[in-house]
Amino acid sequence: MKLIPSVLILSVLMIITTNCANKTTPPKAEYSGKDISGQVSIVRDKETKEARLKIETEGKWTVYAGHSPEKIDMTTPVAEGEGSGEFSLHVSNTAHSYFQIVTPDGKAILAERHLPMEGGYNFRDLGGFRTQDGRYVKWGKLFRSDDLSNLTDPDLHYLASIPIVSIVDFRAETEVQKSPDREPSSVKTNYKLPIIPGNLANFQTAAVSSETLMTDMNRLLVSDTASIGQYKELFRLLQNPDDTPLLFHCSAGKDRTGLAAALILFALGVDDTIIMDDYLSSNAYLGNKYADIIARKPAIRGMFEVRAEYLSAALEQIRIEHGSIENFLTKVLDVDIQKMKDLYLY
Q1: CB neighbour class for 237 (10 Å; exposed up to 12, middle 13-18, buried from 19)
Q2: What is the pLDDT of residue 121?
Q3: Does residue 67 register a pLDDT over 80?
Q4: Which of 77, 127, 68 is closest to 103 using CA atoms?
């Protein structure tokens, strides 16, 4: 048996070590530096789905893109510029994209908050919200929307590219039959979790205002046993990674869905003010959907909008009955808050 000189072995090991050291790990998208999330956003046209960057800055910036936050190509920019404005991004209009924005002040991961659904109004990603401890909600995991019955084929293709895996439908059976969901091909399960808090069918003849009825309904959402059970099931699904990315919705995506979104953001440690702002933004997205009804019947405007007092009523009811929102989440809805944070925060 011929022995290999130890000097030769040492030389080979040094070459291997040097080569490994020279192979740097490709940079990954991240949040770092100053919080610039309030200065940058991605918007897409509802019909063409063209992506544009809105930015407020004085320095130079660079944008990179990919089909997931983990696979953003940090070697080739899709846009570069300097200063504030609105700028086109050269990415696919048929598939969902994620972006890394790099500025002298900081970095942020981006996607569109409002999804460009030609056949929908209130489709939103819960990603990108900053938590009280300085982390950020992951993009592309948690989605909220109004009904899916009018989605176009390009809409469905776009949602499949995310890909949406699960749908949670909070609507009553009568609502489902009237406007059945159109589902993207990526969906494995559509979970029917009907929430029917009280009977609002005769609101037009009721002696109380529509605002009072909506306030009472929001209290019922967190005190009615059946409703609580459905929210508990939602969180069970959210704590199973196999069921995400997940989209939850009702008819307008503002009340049953709005409360669900608020509870999720509370569980993740997002500030109360941010949660309320997100809740109220349904008014901007749903304006065109219900404009004709409101014009004909202004007295019931409160039924087709969200108001701060609606969500506040639900949160107040939770605190009265359970002491805190955290108690309600952990002791009633069986939410493992640390697990939620591990799953959904950067």
Answers
A1: middle
A2: 97
A3: yes
A4: 77
